[in-house]
Amino acid sequence: MAVRRRLLQHPVPLPMSPLRGDGSGNAARYKAVAVTLPSAWRAPHFIIIDSAAMAFDSQPWTPESWQQLPVLQQVRYPDPDELRSVLARIASWPPLVTSFEVDTLRRRLAEAANGRSFLLQGGDCAERFEDCQEEIIKNRLKILLQMSVVLIYGLKMPVVRVGRFAGQFAKPRSAPTETRNGVTLPSFRGDNINGSAFTAEARRPDPARLILAYRCSAVILNLVRALGEGGFANLHNLHYWNLGFAERSPHYEEYRNIIRRVRDALTFAETVAHQPIGGLRRVRFFTCHEALHLPYEQALTRTSKYRDGVYNLSTHLPWIGKRTLELGTAHVEYMRGIRNPIGIKVGPHLSPRELTSLVRHLNPEGVYGRLTLITRFGVSKVEQALPPLVRAVRDGGHKVLWCCDPMHGNTQQTNDGIKTRHFDSILAEVKLVNRVLAAEGARLGGVHLELAGEDVTECIGGASGLEESDLRRAYLTTVDPRLNAEQALEVALRIVGMLDLMPRN
Ligand code: PEP
Ligand code: CO
């Protein structure tokens, strides 16, 4: 993916059509930033760009400056006017998260980068509107809570919980179309863009889906915040986090033992202190998603009355994925100017030079906590491809948090054409990434997993021995296979064993 002269789709920019919120009403603390749209959202034309010749860093950034650059993974809406009006509505609505929360997360990630805490990022590959249900939301929190107790207990450090939820709808695709039995239709791009059913009607991008995405995100965040504040997350109520089906699993006893010891330690500490220990009743969850749909992200890009700079307030931690991180393209440009901590997926497709250019471009001031590099290699590629990247980042003096996504490089197809991942490869990748980082003087500070709180059958392996023949039983994901709750808990238990000797600063 070297910087090179190439053909890229480029939208024709529209004259400015500011839809500026006035800072009154619901969103009193935040001002919506102007939303302008490329006019030919439907009909991109081709231009030749020479990215090497562009002096990106010196260009002034605005929330819409990305529109001047090629937009990878662009969605073509049949009716751009309808899209414009939907975005205007979203831009007038309150933000989903606050700049205070975003800054808090950046500080927490800085701690993780320094070896004083551990990042647990997890959730769906692609959220579905139909999963905006109490049980599903709660079960996902339960498994993340169980995993975090295991990690806190085992690694002896705080865990920063960041859910791939409340906005993880849009999906990048390797091919713009999909063909089945001789019929070719646009690919499914996530519930906020089109439908997954293989019909022309479902696959047509529909701007109204963005409204539903905003609303589902708000509903999910509401429950997550309420549960995090209330009795549900209280460490004294560990039994609330039980997931009936997972208790049959062979390693559940190991989890129960940890819980017992945590409970004893709490009782002991509170007895000695003669009072309840504060801070145990609340648990904070942050959110993350791939910032793929830039018009939507822009509509939720706001300034705050109380803070400098511009924030993406659709999520705490947006990331750019493998398919949209080329310097000189729109997603990188958008990320450059927002104040949020951001994630970058790093895989064998990036050269050391490309990575350090990207890191410098996105964090020129070297702010700790700003960049989380999420490795996604595939177990067979880690040892060869990761070391030069770690060395380049280290030698450049860049401050980053290294986090391992052991899912996306380990996807394989069964003979029946079902996408799956093997538990052993997932675990092996975490182990190797940890080892390579430690050998290069860096440190693994987090994991990034696709997981469900339900008893799904999408990944094979694990202590309960899921096999290929089990996959059809409960295969619910619309894009990538997730660990089920049992497998996810087992990953947390095993990670503790393997990261025990991590170097700490
Ligand atoms: C993802 O996280 O779902 C994803 C598509 O990742 P990547 O960009 O690393 O392939
Ligand atoms: Co995925």
Q: Would you report the number of β strands?
A: 17
Range of strand content: 15-25%
Radius of gyration: 22 Å
Q: Major β-sheet, in short? A: 8 strands, parallel, barrel
Q: CATH homologous superfamily - what is it?
A: Aldolase class I
Instruction: Note the gap between the termini.
Output: 34 Å
Q: Based on the coordinates given, report the CATH architecture.
A: Alpha-Beta Barrel
The number of domains:
1
Q: In oligomeric terms, what are we looking at?
A: single chain
Tell me the series of helices and strands, N- to C-terminal: EEEHHEHEEEHHHEHEEEHEHEHEEEHEH
User: From the helix content, strand content and strand pairing, which structural class follows?
Assistant: alpha/beta
Low-confidence stretches: 1-28, 38-54
Summarize the structure in short.
With 505 residues, the chain is α/β, with parallel strands linked by helices. It has helices at residues 80-92, 99-113, 134-155, 200-203, 208-229, 252-273, 294-299, 330-337, 352-362, 382-395, 423-439, 485-499; strands spanning 5-10, 30-32, 45-50, 118-123, 159-164, 177-180, 183-186, 285-290, 301-304, 310-312, 317-320, 342-346, 371-375, 401-404, 411-413, 419-421, 444-450.
Topology at a glance:
Blueprint: E1 5-10, E2 30-32, E3 45-50, H1 80-92, H2 99-113, E4 118-123, H3 134-155, E5 159-164, E6 177-180, E7 183-186, H4 200-203, H5 208-229, H6 252-273, E8 285-290, H7 294-299, E9 301-304, E10 310-312, E11 317-320, H8 330-337, E12 342-346, H9 352-362, E13 371-375, H10 382-395, E14 401-404, E15 411-413, E16 419-421, H11 423-439, E17 444-450, H12 485-499
Parallel strand pairs: 4-5, 4-17, 5-8, 8-11, 11-12, 12-13, 13-14, 14-17
Antiparallel strand pairs: 1-3, 2-9, 6-7, 9-10, 15-16
Helix pairs in contact: 1-5, 3-5, 3-6, 3-12, 9-10, 10-11, 11-12
Residues 125, 408, 450, 479-480 line the site of cobalt (II) ion.
